[in-house]
């Protein structure tokens, strides 16, 4: 046991002293923030450019609405023209305007044939905006011919906001499916990433020592199984250290940002702002923000973090042993490819099925995927924020521990032989012999 401790210490100190570890630990929280902020920023930049689109309406149904709706403040400005189609197409080709919206001789019952010509393929948001604009205009014409005003129709529409309350053993808890989905997805994706990232580190570490023949000297003092366990636990400690530092740094940044404001002060300030001449739309946005804050407060963050740490360590140890076995059987990265697919498939399957789990977190598919040790680390993190029975959580954890012990036993039998094999062409048949061999 003391020898395993020495191997863990060596693996841990070697990796945490690397510049790459220090730089990634410091930049990690900033990278996570950029992943969220940059897409939103790029989307806002894309919408800031004003696009001029000429409209030719051969049906004459929408002509009047286009003549009165042009505005310099809209991201898309429509200009009704009577020039020939080919002439406008040439202007679009020369870049003088964004596009041409051609409306053939359609009817209100059949709108097929409407075409948008542009120099380059328009984005989905632009096409969506144009489709919604045309739908609104056609809807207005239908309302007018039915002698129903838009105001009267809007008065008939009623927004319904359903609050969800979970009945738990500790009482009632307010929930929010969207917030629970985001929290669960982040946890599941982090575990998926960490297992691949640090599992690959174990595999590369074993391959380097094997190729340098250092392992032949090391195993003269320790057993191969002790070497494998020390390497797996050492790399896991590095990952856990980095993850805890990311939490501490993120919490520190949030604390500095919110310094001087308690949660009660923020809620009181927001309530006062809502009551003082705030526009209706801003009030609705503020109410939504408060709902999200309340939903976040309803999630047991401590329990979620502890569950995350368990499945992170359990999933890593389960897969880390298999990655170490692959590293011992292969002499190069090319040789590892044939063995990666069987190991990667359960992890990829758990990510692919997250949508189905999200639609029914307590369904049959979600239950069984969270019980199978190979898919449980990712799937269970998606289910936890929605609230699951305690017996299911305990059963899943027990099966994961059993799965870890089984894969470690299998990996150990492969590792003890493969770590000393050099130059031999290894396939599944040979690995099967190593598994069944008693020597």
Give a structural overview.
- The chain is α/β, with parallel strands linked by helices.
- It is 69% helix and 7% strand.
- The protein contains 18 helices and 6 strands.
- The chain has helices spanning 2-16, 19-48, 63-68, 85-93, 124-145, 150-156, 177-211, 214-218, 224-257, 263-275, 280-298, 301-329, 333-352, 354-359, 364-371, 376-383, 390-418, 428-436; strands spanning 51-57, 76-80, 99-103, 115-118, 164-168, 171-175.
- The strands form 2 sheets. Strands 2-1-3-4 form a 4-stranded mixed β-sheet. A two-stranded antiparallel sheet has the order 5-6.
- Strand 5 (164-168) and strand 6 (171-175) form a beta hairpin.
- The longest helix has 35 residues, at 177-211.
- 25% of the residues are buried.
- Residues 273-281 have low confidence and may be disordered.
List keywords for this structure.
single chain, 439 residues, alpha/beta, two-stranded antiparallel ribbon
Short structural summary:
By secondary structure, this protein is of the alpha/beta class.
The H-and-E topology, N to C, reads as: HHEHEHEEHHEEHHHHHHHHHHHH
User: Could you give the order of strands across the largest sheet?
Assistant: 2-1-3-4
Structural class: alpha/beta
Largest sheet: 4 strands, mixed
Provide the low-confidence segments as ranges.
273-281
Measure the end-to-end span. Answer: 22 Å
Let me know the number of strands. Answer: 6
How does the overall form come out from the CA principal axes?
elongated
Q: Which percent band covers the strand fraction?
A: 5-15%
Determine the mean pLDDT: 78
Number of separate helices: 18
Rg value: 30 Å
Estimated helix fraction: 55-70%
């Amino acid at each position: 046991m003391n020898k395993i401790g020495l191997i863990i210490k060596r693996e841990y100190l070697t990796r945490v002293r690397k510049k790459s570890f220090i730089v990634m630990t410091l930049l990690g929280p900033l990278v996570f923030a950029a992943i969220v902020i940059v897409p939103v920023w790029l989307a806002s930049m894309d919408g800031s450019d004003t696009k001029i689109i000429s409209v030719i309406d051969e049906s004459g149904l929408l002509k009047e609405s286009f003549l009165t709706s042009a505005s310099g403040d809209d991201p898309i400005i429509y200009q009704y023209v009577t020039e020939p189609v080919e002439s406008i197409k040439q202007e679009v080709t020369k870049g003088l305007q964004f596009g041409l919206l051609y409306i053939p001789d359609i009817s209100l019952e059949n709108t097929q044939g409407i075409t948008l010509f542009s120099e380059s393929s328009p984005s989905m948001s632009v096409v969506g905006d144009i489709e919604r604009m045309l739908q609104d205009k056609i809807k207005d014409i239908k309302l007018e011919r039915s002698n129903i005003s838009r105001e009267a129709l809007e008065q008939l529409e009623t927004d319904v906001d359903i609050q969800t309350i979970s009945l738990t053993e500790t009482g009632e808890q307010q929930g929010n499916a969207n917030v629970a989905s985001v929290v669960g997805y982040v946890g599941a994706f982090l575990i998926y990433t960490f297992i691949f990232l640090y599992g690959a580190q174990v595999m590369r570490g074993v391959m380097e020592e094997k190729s340098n023949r250092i392992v032949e000297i090391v195993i003269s003092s320790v057993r191969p199984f002790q070497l494998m366990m020390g390497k797996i636990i050492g790399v896991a400690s590095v990952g856990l250290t980095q993850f805890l530092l990311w939490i501490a740094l993120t919490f520190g940044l949030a604390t500095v940002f919110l310094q001087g404001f308690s949660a009660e002060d923020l809620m009181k300030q927001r309530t006062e702002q809502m009551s003082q001449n705030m526009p209706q739309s801003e009030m609705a946005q503020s109410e939504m923000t408060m709902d999200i804050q309340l939903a976040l407060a309803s999630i047991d963050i401590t329990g979620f973090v502890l569950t995350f740490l368990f499945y992170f360590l359990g999933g890593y140890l389960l897969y880390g042993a298999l990655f170490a076995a692959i590293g011992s059987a292969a002499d190069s990265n090319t040789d590892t490819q044939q063995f990666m697919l069987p190991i990667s498939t359960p992890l990829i399957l758990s990510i692919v099925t997250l949508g189905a789990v999200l639609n029914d977190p307590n369904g049959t598919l979600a239950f069984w995927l969270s019980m199978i040790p190979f898919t449980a680390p990712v799937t269970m993190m998606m289910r936890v924020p929605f609230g699951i029975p305690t017996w299911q959580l305990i059963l899943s954890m027990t099966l994961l521990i059993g799965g870890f012990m089984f894969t470690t036993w299998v990996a150990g039998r492969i590792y003890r032989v493969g770590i000393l094999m050099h130059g031999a062409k290894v396939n599944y048949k040979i690995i099967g012999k190593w598994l069944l061999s008693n020597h």
